[in-house]
């Protein structure tokens, strides 16, 4: 076994899968998908082939010639991070560059959240959606689940007729199912005969652009859509108020795509559709190609949620076109994308907005580095993740330190030269998965002598924040920070000083207040500005976090309500942490445990795992 990724059983001596055809039967009552997958390898191969799975039942592995069974085995006990290794024995015959696997998912699949009707907006129909990053695709279908591998796929999704399906792939057709199509006759437990029932429909998709498995994505529910641009439609549950608000919030998307193209070259994925998910979606957005998945909390009513869209759009170049080889080089995805996001925001919304965004990131980076003070490995851009679950060490470091590194290079060589460099970088490595060394070799070749001006080793392998990182400056940014400083001396900002503040200004202000205030100060701030009732979750959560850290119990009811209505980890992490971290928090710990036990079912499995690990560490 020669591993190439600390988070995968993929053997580097095995040929890679190039194409997969999936036939998936969605059984909502049992929260299970029954599937047949046909795999094509890059080369004919004889011997042991190693795949990743997690909580899958493997019914059969079959020959492509005569459907005879091929021997396979599963590792006896699952690895807590990687899951279960599937080993397939392919016979010594040149035709074996392909095979079938018949499998079923489990209701505990870590990629899938199955929502029952009361957990959706419309309360009428069930809903299921995926989140495969970092290492969860393997809980939907067996695969070489490493970003070092890229696959094309076809998929037939067999779903109840009253629902529809979307994927991060080209939609080919919606039509009645055909008995036996896509080898669905191989499906287990009688689902083969249910495939062509008249209560079902097949949604057919094709993904011709090769993607790493973590970008595999679908959602099934009662969906509606609105056109917002020549290559953009917004999808959400078929509730007019949600669709209208989303269409309004994201009306400027085409302008952002054009800005992205100006900076980074042609948009390679044809469509840029958006899917607004139910509130349990664990991230702000997920850059699934052709269709970005979004939390409904980005709909703020003032188009400021577009910043998350700018980030996911920027991934179309950095992350999706050029992908980190494994999670130890995650900064190549997120640092570049954070840089690109700010360039798009700067072009579309102006420099002041981009600087606020950078300033919030700077504060976040300093706090993350402080948080990792006992585990400095994860303050490095390139780090060692052997035996480490990527979900539990997820932080702003790859985003913000990665951003700072690229910004440092920009300041050194000037923006025009850096823009040329980025275009060249994207053109050279598109549709490839690379590591930090490949980036550095390219940088040194393109910009000779750069290593003399910037300590590249310190930036990529050193801990903490390098001395030549840079806090942004602008009048607005400086003004907000000085107001936050004045609060420490007892002065609250006047109404006229905050009259044109939007969410980001408040977020920056709150983040720069002392972490612990007098309860009376927290109450006074809320009395004047009603921050606990803000419709903008960034503001509301920043305020509630401050209230909990200051033990201002008047707001615990609002904290509980917030933890029960959204499942975005950006809000769950700080609120649960504020409740349980530190001494003398007995009442808060009891509250956290009770709220989690009541809200758990509403969270995506990835968020459940993250909250569990926070509670386990402190309770
Ligand atoms: Zn990102």
From TrEMBL:
> In this protein, which residues make up the domain named Peptidase M1 leukotriene A4 hydrolase/aminopeptidase C-terminal?
475-615
Database matches in InterPro entries:
Aminopeptidase_N-like_N, Aminopeptidase_N-like_N_sf, ARM-type_fold, LTA4H_cat, M1_LTA-4_hydro/amino_C_sf, M1_LTA4H, Peptidase_M1, Peptidase_M1_C
| Catalytic activity reported | an epoxide + H2O = an ethanediol
- Residue positions annotated to bind a peptide are 131-133, 282-287, 568-570
CDD domains referenced in this protein's UniProt entry, alphabetically: M1_LTA4H
How cofactor binds (record note)?
A: Binds 1 zinc ion per subunit.
PANTHER family documented for this protein: LEUKOTRIENE A-4 HYDROLASE (PTHR45726:SF3)
Names of required cofactors:
Zn(2+)
Q: What is its main location?
A: cytoplasm
Molecular function terms from GO: epoxide hydrolase activity; metallopeptidase activity; zinc ion binding
Keyword Zinc assigned to the entry: answer is yes
Q: What is its EC number?
A: 3.3.2.10
User: To which species is this protein native?
Assistant: Hibiscus trionum
Q: Where are the transmembrane segments?
A: none
Pfam families given for it?
Answer: Leuk-A4-hydro_C, Peptidase_M1, Peptidase_M1_N
Protein name per Swiss-Prot or TrEMBL: Leucine aminopeptidase
State where Zn(2+) binds.
Answer: 311, 315, 334
Q: Name one GO cellular component term.
A: cytosol
